Amino acid sequence: MTVPVGVDLAEPYVELSYVDAVRECRRRPLLDCVTARFEDVPAVRPFRWSRGERHFPGWYWAATTGRHVGFESWLERDRLVLMDFDPGVMGIASQPFWLHWHDGERERRHAPDYFVRRTDGSAVVVDVRADERIEPRDAEAFEVTRLACRQAGWGFERVGVPDEVLLANVRWLSRYRHPRCRRGPVVDRLREVFAAPVPLMSGADAAGDRLGTLPVLFHLLWLQKLAADGMAVELLGPSTVVRLADGGLR
Q1: Residue 53 has what pLDDT?
Q2: Residue 211: CB partners within 8 Å, gap ≥ 6?
Q3: pLDDT per residue over 204-232, tens digit each?
Q4: pLDDT, tens only, 158-211
Q5: How far is CA 50 from CA 9, 54, 56, 59, 164, in A?
Q6: Average pLDDT taken over every residue of the chain
Q7: pTM, to two decimals
Q8: Nearest CA among 216, 222, 221, 226 for reference residue 249
Q9: Average pLDDT rounded to a whole number, residues 14-23
Q10: Alpha-carbon span 224 to 88, nearest angstrom
Q11: Helix/strand/coil (H/E/C) assignment for every residue in 82-109
Q12: Taking each helix axis from N to C terminus, what angle separates 164-174 and 74-85, rounded to the nearest 10 degrees?
């Protein structure tokens, strides 16, 4: 990789390669790409599974984008569900680009796990790796990624294993993330019932037949239009106290 004249070598010189909107492969200097909408690009490598491999790739339908987003492990899937649950996230792409740099001996590359666009317009690059599985080469790649993101004005996060209780609750609610779970008349009844804090199952029964109200209730909890007490400390259950979230329901 040739470093152009005028580049500050105090920071790593990084190039990005990605697949554009017309499925053409592009490779450009990092600083030429800072305004690109990487939340909309296809993955730079396929998500494949082969017998005997330890990782478990797949596709997750994200309610945030209405599109499938790839993952390469259960941990990446779990983190993807949590990003989908985050109301501050408006766009997610997996394996959005390759970062290319030279380590002094040879050219290296690394594909971050996710590119996230937040509702305030900012961007965050996310790498997912459990703490105990970070090897020296991984640590170097994450550090180069962090420095590259700083140059581009993006945030960078390396995240590991999430809190088990919060994850279990969010995964349960994700079953009800699809907009088909939102039924207007039931939403209105739930809004009235949970205007004051009420136990989850008591409120579902007060709003009507629980077979009809519970899916809508869980959908509103997923949207965070309703709020449940203690989501990070105890599993959702019949006695969990639920209330209107700040701002109520629209």
Answers
A1: 63
A2: none
A3: 999 999 999 999 999 999 999 999 999 99
A4: 999 999 999 999 999 999 999 999 999 999 999 999 999 999 999 999 999 999
A5: 41, 9, 9, 15, 28
A6: 92
A7: 0.90
A8: 226
A9: 92
A10: 11
A11: HHHHCCCEEEEEECCCEEEEECCCCEEE
A12: 70
CA distance 85 to 101: 34
Q: Which residue has the tokens 């519970």?
A: 214
> Which residues lie below 8 Å from residue 206, measured CB to CB, with a gap of 6+?
193, 198
Token representation of residue 233: 């400390």
Which tokens in the block code for residue 66? 């209405």
Would you give the DSSP letter of residue 232? T
> Tokens 């939102």 map to which residue?
182
Identity of residue 112: P
Calpha distance 184→55 (Å, rounded): 41
The size of the chain, in residues, is 250
Nearest to 83 by CA among 171, 155, 181: 171
DSSP state of 65: T
* Contacts by 33-39, CB closer than 8 A, 24 or more apart: 33/97, 33/152, 34/152, 34/153, 34/154, 37/91, 37/117, 38/93, 38/96, 38/97, 38/115, 38/123, 39/65, 39/90, 39/91, 39/92, 39/93, 39/96, 39/115, 39/116, 39/117, 39/123
**How far, in Å, are 11, 110, 208 from residue 217 at the CA level?**
50, 41, 11
- Concatenated DSSP letters for 25-56? EEEEEGGGSTTS-GGGSPPSS-----TT-S--
